[in-house]
């Protein structure tokens, strides 16, 4: 899993722009889709992840969704620590 991809929050809750390793344009990730599992504009998601999820199969998310989950987890823990220190 590539955890070094740059994640930039979009202008709506749950929307993120995630750096692409193949394209110049970032991928659009929507973490409000699929009951919070997310969706992505990349080929891996469209051709592999989404069809598997629709069939009810266990399948790992694409690296852009994973990068968003990691980013959000880090933000959450930073917030926990900040609130603890108040
Ligand atoms: Zn993706």
Helix content: 25-40%
Cofactors and ligands: zinc ion
Oligomer: single chain
Strand order of the largest sheet: 1-2-3-4
Distance between the termini: 35 Å
**Strand fraction band?**
15-25%
- Give the overall silhouette: globular
Mean pLDDT: 94
Low-pLDDT parts are none
Strand-pairing-aware structural class: alpha+beta
Q: What profile does the largest beta sheet have?
A: 4 strands, antiparallel
Total number of distinct structural domains = 1
| SSE order, one letter for each helix or strand | EEEEHH
Number of strands: 4
**Helix count, per DSSP?**
2
Radius of gyration: 14 Å
What does this protein look like?
There is one protein chain. This protein is an alpha+beta fold. The protein has one domain. Helix content is 40%, strand content 15%. It has two helices and four strands. The protein has a four-stranded antiparallel β-sheet with strand order 1-2-3-4. The termini are far apart. The model has no long low-confidence stretch (mean pLDDT 94). Zinc ion binds next to helix 1 and helix 2.
How do the strands and helices of this protein lay out in sequence?
Blueprint: E1 7-9, E2 15-18, E3 27-30, E4 39-40, H1 43-54, H2 63-84
Antiparallel strand pairs: 1-2, 2-3, 3-4
């Amino acid at each position: 899993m590539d955890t070094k991809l740059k994640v930039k929050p979009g202008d709506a809750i749950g929307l993120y722009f995630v750096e692409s390793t193949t394209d110049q344009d970032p991928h659009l990730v929507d973490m409000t889709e699929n009951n919070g599992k997310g969706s992505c504009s990349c080929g891996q998601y469209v051709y592999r992840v989404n069809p598997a999820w629709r069939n009810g199969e266990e399948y790992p998310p694409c690296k852009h969704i994973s990068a968003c989950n990691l980013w959000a987890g880090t933000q959450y823990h930073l917030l926990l620590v900040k609130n603890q220190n108040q």
